[in-house]
Amino acid sequence: MNPSTQTFLHWFRALVVVAIISGVGFFVYQNTTGENAEHPFKLGLDLAGGSHLVYEADVSELVPQEVPQLMNVLRDVIERRVNAFGVSEPVVQVERSSFVAERQSERLVIELPGVTDVGEAVAEIGRTPLLEFKLYSAELEQQQQALQSLESLAGSSSAGAVIGDVRVNGELVKETESALPFVDTGLTGRYLKTASLEFAGSQTGQLANEPLVSVSFNEEGAQLFAKITREHVGEQLGIFLDGELLSAPVINEAIIGGTAIISGDFTLEEARALAENLSFGALPMPINLVSTQTIDATLGAGVVQQSMMAGLLGFVLIASFMILWYRLPGLVASLALISYLLLSLAVFQLIPVTLTAAGLAGLVLSLGIAVDANVLVFERLKEELRAGKGSHDAIKDGFSRAWLAIRDSNITGLISAVILFWFGTSMIKGFALVLAVGIIISMISAITITRTLLLVLPDVKRDDPGIWPYLLGTGLRKK
Question: What span, in angstroms and rounded, lies between the C-alpha atoms of 105 and 110?
Answer without folding.
Answer: 16
